[in-house]
Write a structure and sequence with these properties.
This protein has helices spanning 3-24, 26-33, 42-65, 68-90, 99-121. It is an all-alpha fold.
Length: 122
């Protein structure tokens, strides 16, 4: 498995963990990130968990097949998670802890970017 594929696999594990948390413990997720009262948004959180599960499957498949084109797409889109999280934190929609979600996306997107560049140069 290439380094870029490993980065995608690791991100897939993150998405799988996030999805399972949202699907099975939505109220805990709501409390941890402070986006409402437990029970109020559990349907939305579960729906988000389902979408994260589907994304995790895409990331695992891309890693397994070493789909560099898909990997490049994620390099350009994952930093947008940080941008949106930062915007939501700055406008008071999300608590400050939510910025860590965006930071993780930025770091792993950077890992994928540098791995793909090294792969292209090899």
């Amino acid at each position: 498995m290439t380094s870029a594929a490993k980065s995608m696999f690791v991100f897939g594990i993150y998405l799988l963990s996030l999805s399972m948390s949202c699907l099975f413990w939505p109220n805990t997720v709501i409390e941890l990130i402070g986006i409402g009262e437990p029970g109020d948004a559990s349907v939305f959180i579960r729906f988000s968990g389902m979408m994260a599960l589907f994304l995790a499957i895409y990331y695992f498949a891309a890693a397994r097949k070493d789909q560099s084109e898909f990997m490049w797409w994620t390099v350009y889109t994952r930093p947008l998670v940080f941008a949106f999280c930062a915007l939501f934190v700055l406008t008071g929609v999300f608590p400050k802890v939510a910025i860590f979600v965006g930071i993780f996306d930025m770091v792993t997107a950077g890992w994928t970017y540098f791995a793909l560049r090294a792969q292209a140069g090899a």
